[in-house]
């Protein structure tokens, strides 16, 4: 009877719970001598809650020499909600009732998931699809929102693109021989979320030779506007061009092999992946320190310029 009663509760598995809660003799017995006395009626599948079944020993169970006491409580089933998603600082953008179908959105959405925002802009901007233009405008809005939230736009990646079907609009469609039919025009909703990749992870991908093409093009434009010298361009060669990124990957591979040979001569045995991580970790630390120094200097220069403008306007007003 207990097996039939518990089988009505979704997600309950009687045998493992009874084995873990009671002794082996009871687990090997038939469930019929035990009957369910009380079940918590406030059970709801979407709320985290544990049900308690109170089992009372019947007359037939007393003959089996199983001592349970007057009543025994076992956890029947645990139902947990899915954990809430915790996002860091992100930029989001939504648009409702876009005149497009889910089938037409599927291809451009898959092409930008997980990519750098600048790469996604290049992909969507070069597409002739009407749905890609909607996504391009929405991605720009998400990038601007992220910049307003204080995120670094150079480290923004597309985290999620959620899209779903909206209500249809019915229109009249004229058919042959004086007939008419109903035409359903599809609409959908889109929600784009971009997030900022951590500094260590971002610079590690750069030092591995996996810089995105959009970020490389953006960096080339910045260096061109600043009119930097040749030595500075050489320092960023592993990001700016595809050939530089390829050479960086080969150079890292050779450094790992040389370090493995050196460790073998000195009697130190480390895996290839660990040696690779150690090499990258030291370079990433130096890169992060120089990046934070340049960023602080840029903020200081901007603050001084704003203060000069403020003082000049204040003087003119007086």
Could you explain the architecture of this structure?
Helix content is 52%, strand content 19%. It has a 3-stranded antiparallel β-sheet with strand order 1-2-3. Helix 12 packs across helix 13. The longest helix has 46 residues. It starts with a helix and ends with a helix. The relative contact order is 0.08. The N terminus is likely disordered.
Task: Describe this structure in a few short sentences.
The protein has 318 residues and is α+β, with helices and mostly antiparallel strands.
Task: Kindly list the characteristics that best describe this protein.
disordered N terminus, three-stranded antiparallel beta sheet, alpha+beta, 318 residues
Strands, helices and their partners?
Blueprint lengths: L1 H6 L6 H8 L2 H5 L5 E3 L12 E9 L1 H4 L8 E9 L10 E9 L3 H11 L4 H9 L4 H19 L7 E10 L3 E6 L5 E6 L2 E9 L2 H9 L5 H14 L3 H6 L1 H4 L1 H25 L5 H46 L1
Antiparallel strand pairs: 1-2, 2-3, 4-8, 5-8, 6-7
Helix pairs in contact: 6-7, 6-9, 8-13, 12-13
H/E topology pattern: HHHEEHEEHHHEEEEHHHHHH
Quaternary structure annotation? single chain
Assign an overall shape: flat
Largest sheet: 3 strands, antiparallel
Helices, by number, come to 13
- Backbone CA Rg: 32 Å
Mean pLDDT over the full residue set: 77
Counting helices, strands and paired strands, the structural category is alpha+beta
């Amino acid at each position: 009877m207990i097996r039939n009663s518990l089988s009505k509760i979704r997600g309950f598995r009687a045998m493992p719970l009874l084995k873990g809660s009671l002794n082996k003799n009871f687990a090997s017995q038939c469930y019929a001598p035990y009957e369910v006395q009380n079940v918590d009626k406030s059970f709801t599948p979407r709320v985290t809650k544990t049900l308690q079944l109170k089992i009372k020993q019947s007359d037939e169970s007393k003959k089996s020499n199983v001592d349970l006491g007057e009543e025994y409580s076992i956890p029947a089933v645990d139902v947990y909600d899915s954990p809430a998603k915790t996002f860091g600082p992100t930029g989001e953008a939504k648009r409702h009732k876009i005149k497009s179908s889910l089938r037409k959105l599927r291809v451009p959405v898959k092409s930008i998931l997980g990519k750098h925002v600048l790469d996604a802009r290049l992909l969507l901007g070069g597409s002739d699809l009407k749905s890609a233009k909607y996504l391009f405008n929405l991605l720009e809005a998400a990038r601007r929102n992220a910049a307003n939230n204080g995120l670094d736009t150079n480290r923004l990646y597309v985290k999620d693109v959620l899209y779903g079907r909206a209500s249809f609009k019915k229109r009249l469609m004229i058919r042959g021989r004086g007939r008419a039919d109903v035409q359903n025009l599809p609409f959908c909703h889109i929600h784009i979320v971009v997030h900022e990749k951590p500094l260590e992870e971002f610079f590690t991908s750069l030092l591995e030779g996996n810089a995105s093409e959009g970020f490389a093009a953006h960096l080339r434009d910045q260096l061109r506007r600043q009119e930097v010298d040749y030595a500075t361009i050489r320092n960023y060669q592993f990001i700016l061009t595809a050939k530089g990124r390829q050479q960086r990957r080969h150079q890292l591979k050779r450094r790992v092999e040389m370090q493995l040979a050196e460790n073998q001569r000195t009697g130190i045995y480390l895996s290839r992946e660990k040696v690779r991580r150690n090499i990258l970790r030291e370079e990433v630390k130096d890169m992060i320190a120089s990046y934070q120094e340049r960023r602080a200097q840029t903020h200081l220069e901007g603050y001084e310029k704003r203060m000069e403008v403020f003082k000049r306007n204040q003087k003119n007003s007086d």
